[in-house]
């Protein structure tokens, strides 16, 4: 548990973490989601037919994983996974002077909601806004006005104009809390923690010893007689499994992030030296999926509607070209390339300005 030892030589009275520890903890928490998303994307790309759905429900898979891991950490270590990693714990601000400074059951449940559900809801709202913005900017003004009448579109329109103010207010409140924390006007660095009466403190030596005691495998088999010990094996096994998974997760995540970084820096080098190299051969054509949409017989036909393409648009993940309305609608419904089933998003659409008459 070397990560807990770094702060041991600091004075015991200085229990409040510095803003740097908090920022480090927050950036680790926000790095977990992209890392898991990256792993799911690798899995989905390896076999789009079999694993494509994993990428489409990636946010929900992360939500479940996050719930399990954060619940385990809150229950056993009194903080989130990233807080525990940086040697921090959550304490009840109302009972701060008390020996029993731990979280109440109610606060633990609220903490779990703030840690897991709030970021998920914010992510979904961000995605919804991005989609509304794309629709607004897609230039399809005629259909935009036709749809204007429906109740749902009206709501979407209101959301499109209101959400930026909400987002701005949300971020500003967080920034103000950080500033107040730096200048010691506030004991809490986050409005979410303030609302539920919690602040962050460094783990004490006693906390770390208690955690190590709890984690030692001898303590897991409770009971005095052999029979009692035997009967506690299934629950102990579950505990060991969850704690191994929870402890191993950061390692896996950092390993994946490292691979991502490694390949991206490799790419950079390759780009720098590209002038000295001969022009590379074009990549092979992506393989159509077994149950994917069939390619049309003539290259000017759109694979989806089979008519001559209007507004030709390439999908960057596979390189195939479709009508813009056809592929946009398909991506919103299925989230993958119709031909190869590679995971794709509407961000990957590239408008092609070719002279159709030639
Ligand atoms: Zn079409």
Structure description:
It is a multi-pass membrane protein. Keywords: Membrane, Metal-binding, Peroxisome, Protein transport, Transmembrane, Transmembrane helix, Transport, Ubl conjugation pathway, Zinc, Zinc-finger. The chain is built from 14 helices and 5 strands. It has 358 residues and is mainly α. The chain has a 3-stranded antiparallel β-sheet. A two-stranded antiparallel ribbon has the order 1-2. β3 (312-315) and β4 (321-323) form a beta hairpin. α2 (19-46) packs antiparallel against α3 (48-56), α2 (19-46) crosses α13 (233-272) and α6 (105-137) crosses α8. The protein is globular. The model is unreliable at 1-13 (pLDDT under 50). Zinc ion binds next to β4.
How is the secondary structure organized here?
Blueprint lengths: L1 H4 L13 H28 L1 H9 L1 H20 L3 H5 L2 E5 L12 H33 L3 H7 L3 H32 L8 H5 L2 E5 L2 H11 L1 H4 L5 H6 L1 H40 L39 E4 L5 E3 H11 L14 E3 L7
Helix pairs in contact: 2-3, 2-13, 4-6, 6-8
Bound molecules: zinc ion.
The site of zinc ion (ZN) has 7 residues, from strand 4.
Family: Belongs to the pex2/pex10/pex12 family.
Protein name: Peroxisome assembly protein 12
Keywords: Membrane, Metal-binding, Peroxisome, Protein transport, Transmembrane, Transmembrane helix, Transport, Ubl conjugation pathway, Zinc, Zinc-finger
């Amino acid at each position: 548990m070397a990560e807990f030892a770094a702060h041991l030589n600091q004075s015991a009275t200085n229990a409040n973490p510095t803003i740097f520890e908090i920022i480090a903890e927050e950036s680790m928490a926000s790095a977990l989601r992209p890392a898991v998303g990256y792993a799911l994307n690798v899995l989905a790309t390896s076999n789009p037919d079999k694993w494509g759905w994993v990428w489409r429900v990636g946010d929900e898979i992360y939500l479940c994983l996050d719930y399990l891991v954060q619940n385990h950490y809150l229950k056993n270590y009194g903080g989130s996974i990233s807080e525990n990693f940086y040697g921090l714990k959550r304490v009840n601000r109302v009972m701060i002077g008390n020996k029993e400074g731990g979280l109440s059951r109610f606060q633990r449940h609220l903490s779990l909601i703030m840690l897991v559900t709030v970021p998920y809801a914010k992510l979904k709202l961000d995605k919804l806004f991005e989609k509304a913005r794309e629709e607004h900017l897609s230039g399809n003004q005629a259909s935009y006005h036709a749809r204007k009448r429906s109740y749902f579109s009206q709501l979407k329109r209101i959301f499109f104009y209101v959400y930026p103010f909400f987002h701005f207010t949300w971020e500003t409140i967080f920034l103000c809390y950080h500033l107040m924390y730096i200048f010691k006007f506030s004991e809490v660095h986050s409005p979410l923690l303030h609302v539920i009466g919690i602040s962050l403190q460094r783990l004490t030596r006693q906390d770390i010893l208690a955690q190590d005691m709890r984690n030692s495998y001898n303590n897991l088999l409770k009971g005095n007689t052999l029979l009692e010990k035997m009967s506690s094996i299934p629950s102990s096994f579950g505990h060991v499994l969850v704690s191994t998974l929870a402890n191993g997760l950061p390692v896996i995540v950092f390993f994946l992030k490292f691979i991502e970084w490694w390949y991206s820096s490799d790419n950079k080098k390759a780009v720098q030296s590209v002038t000295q190299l001969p022009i590379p051969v074009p990549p092979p054509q992506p393989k159509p999926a077994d149950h994917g949409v069939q390619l049309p017989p003539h290259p000017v036909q759109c694979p989806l509607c089979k008519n001559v393409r209007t507004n030709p648009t390439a999908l960057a993940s596979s390189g195939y070209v479709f009508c813009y309305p056809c592929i946009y609608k398909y991506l919103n419904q299925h989230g993958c390339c119709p031909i190869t089933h590679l995971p794709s998003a509407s961000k990957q659409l590239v408008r092609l300005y070719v002279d159709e008459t030639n």
